Amino acid sequence: MTQQNELTIRRPDDWHLHLRDGDLLTAVLPFTANVFRRAIIMPNLKPPVVKVADAVAYRTRILKALAGDTGFEPLMTAYLTDATDADELSRGHAEGAFTAAKLYPAGATTNSDNGVTDIGKIYGVLERMEEIGMPLLVHGEVTDPDVDIFDREQVFIDNVLIPTLQRFDRLKVVFEHITTAEGVAFVEGSGANIGATITPHHLVINRNALFVGGMRPHMFCLPVAKRERHRLALRAAATSDDTSFFLGTDSAPHLVSEKESDCGCAGIFNAPSALEVYAQVFDEEGALDRLEAFASLNGPAFYGMPPNEGKVTLKRGERPADDRLTVGSEEILPFDTGKSVLWRVVY
Ligand code: NCD
Ligand code: ZN
């Protein structure tokens, strides 16, 4: 078989992205906007994006930070709290200010303190979202400190997701950044109203990466990487023909000083190499012909949007490691898989 050296796909979208704000936003945005046409923008700012006006203002700041005419379109999300008002949410959805709403169990991850303390508190909101067809994006981990951190996704499926979906069986849910074989099996066994995003890093690293010769804060994200068998299940799911799985980088930049600290922040900044790393994974799995579905078709189909018209071309060729990004007097370290990435986006 001759080796494929070039691949052109429809322009992809990133269905899970943290862009932050201010100088950080300006620094990280080009990496996404140069490759992806749309992105679902996570609302976990400080303070979070809760109201329609917050999303409209944040969207304006993103558009202002865009350099050049990339055609990039930010799709905004609402941060659900115990106090979220169903009317405000549905108004935002109707006006196009909120594409979806994000459920952070309170305390589950970065800037989730204002999240939902008990899913029962938002039943009214979920009922409305089901009615209007507004997707619920879930950070699927329980926060009970007695549950082992490596089991929190599985316990969330059993204790929160399944009961919630029994109550709201038409609710559209994206199970974000799945990290376990149980997550994969749950999505595979669910109806068309359940989708899932898979990050590049969870396809490449397992939990050993956190402890290679010492503690590796730049490999720390939430949900934390799991055992090898889970990584293999994620790779099989992403490269399968199951349209429930789609691209969501969860690119989550933090300053080096905040990562390399006594209490280092969770989050991996993978935007500079995201599409290339996905291409590498699909290549290794002999599934380059399925990259377009995962990156550019399954997500829009789930969200009920047309796929993009533009194209992106990738060429085989060793990709150099990314430089650190400078933000003021601080730096951000891009994700480094530690292995060769043999695909490059052609600009
Ligand atoms: C994200 C962040 O930094 O905002 N961190 C992460 O580890 N993924 C939050 C999140 O998506 O959990
Ligand atoms: Zn995230």
Please describe what this structure looks like.
It is built from eleven helices and 13 strands. The protein has one domain: TIM Barrel (Alpha-Beta Barrel). α3 packs parallel to α4 (123-132). It is 33% helix and 16% strand. It is of the alpha/beta class. It has an eight-stranded parallel β-sheet. It binds N-carbamoyl-L-aspartate (NCD) and zinc ion (ZN). Zinc ion binds at residues 16, 18, 42, 250, 252.
Show the helix and strand layout.
Blueprint: E1 6-10, E2 14-17, H1 22-33, E3 38-41, H2 52-65, E4 73-79, H3 86-94, E5 100-103, H4 123-132, E6 136-138, H5 152-167, E7 173-175, H6 181-188, E8 194-198, H7 200-204, H8 228-238, E9 245-247, H9 256-259, H10 274-284, H11 291-303, E10 311-316, E11 325-327, E12 330-332, E13 343-346
Parallel strand pairs: 2-3, 3-4, 4-5, 5-6, 6-7, 7-8, 8-9
Antiparallel strand pairs: 1-10, 10-13, 11-12
The chain binds N-carbamoyl-L-aspartate and zinc ion.
